[in-house]
Amino acid sequence: MIDEEYNWKGKKILITEDEEINYLFLERVLSPTNVTIERACNGREAIDMAVGDSEIDLVLMDIRMPEINGIDATIEIRKQRPNLPVIAHTCYDTDLNLSSLPEVKFDGFISKPVNISKMMRLIDKYMK
């Protein structure tokens, strides 16, 4: 079970997701790990929260978001918190080549629909 395998008590994840159903899914999957979850509904909020809250340990960054997309938001976050892990997640993986964007430097990539085991292993790599 996920809650037995992963315990991220004392850690905080920022989920950037404008779609309510996708956010609720991620929240449900991650909450058994005891992690604190924050949410940004657009790219501007993601920047403000990731830069303004030094307790955020990792960002799950949706690529297609209102106001500022996840790529541009990540670039802005990296300017002030270059060591904050940012994992991209999107259902639009077929039209994005994230490796061609070296200035973004995502720490990982998760496509939707989410493979829960893969996502948990990737997040755990940065929660230790």
Notable characteristics:
128 residues; alpha/beta; Rossmann fold; five-stranded parallel beta sheet; 5 strands
Describe the structure.
Helix 3 packs parallel to helix 4 (70-80). The mean pLDDT is 88. The chain has one domain (2-127): 3-Layer(aba) Sandwich (Rossmann fold). It is 38% helix and 19% strand. Strands 2-1-3-4-5 form a 5-stranded parallel sheet, sandwiched between helices. It has helices spanning 2-5, 20-30, 43-52, 70-80, 116-127, and strands at 12-16, 36-40, 58-62, 86-90, 108-111. Helix 4 links the parallel strand 3 and strand 4 (86-90). With 128 residues, it is an alpha/beta fold.
Write the layout of secondary structure elements.
Layout: H1 2-5, E1 12-16, H2 20-30, E2 36-40, H3 43-52, E3 58-62, H4 70-80, E4 86-90, E5 108-111, H5 116-127
